[in-house]
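Hello, quick one for you while I still have it in my head. I'm working through a protein record and want to make sense of it properly. Would you mind checking whether the tokens look sensible for this chain? I owe you a coffee for this, so here goes:
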Amino acid sequence: MNVSQKIPPPSLARQVGLSLLAFILFSLGITPLAEAVPKQIIILRHGEKQNDYRLCAIGQQRSLALEANYLGKGAANSLFPAGTGPDGIFAITLHTLELASPLAQSWSLPIQLYSVAPLPDMSKREFTLQLNQRTQQAARDLLNHPNWEGKTLVMVWEHDHIANQQLEAAFPHEQITLRQLLNLDQLPDTAQVPHTWFGDNYDYFWIVDYGTPGSDVPTGFTVHKQVFPKPYQALPSNDWGKPEKLPKASGCIH
């Protein structure tokens, strides 16, 4: 994984000035050019689910495995450089909140929640429209808010709104996935960025680097597979685009 050069932290006066400018522009309905871009964004999907509201036992085990091996404080195979951790953790649905909770607790960090919850009378289209809007808001904040300049962020997200070619085609005049909104389609070699996050894949990270200060065009992209040692070695670890093999009576749904 390529780690971009560290960006010097902005002065307090500059942070206050940028915050005031962003507030004024957003109040007027104007989206400013990126001025405060993170150093790195680690994207992953929530774990396997039992229903629309909670993870199944395997998904819960995945949340603990991710905290112990990749994303938590003192993780055995941490994705963060030694002595560092995430500066912000973001989630959107109940599934993503549940998966992110153990790693957030390990760092004593709050979860930045752009919440969308399924309600009994909500149609699938209404749910999708809310996910569109909240994903747009989250991406805008990540690429413009001075709090996140030069920082390392973790996004636990709903997979169709990470990347989905059919969903993007259904909203041709909008940007509604992280692939679009975080400008992954502007990387020098866009072929390396999948157009769709497959429904059977719960076991991957997308790691996005921003190496040019003030630019929201990524300079690096890495796909990293989750593989766990004991006691989590039985968690599904299927290759990209391949079916997930779940135990019988797992209680998990796709």
Remarks:
- The chain has six helices and six strands.
- Residues 124-144 form the longest helix (21 residues).
- The mean pLDDT is 89.
- The two ends are 30 Å apart (CA to CA).
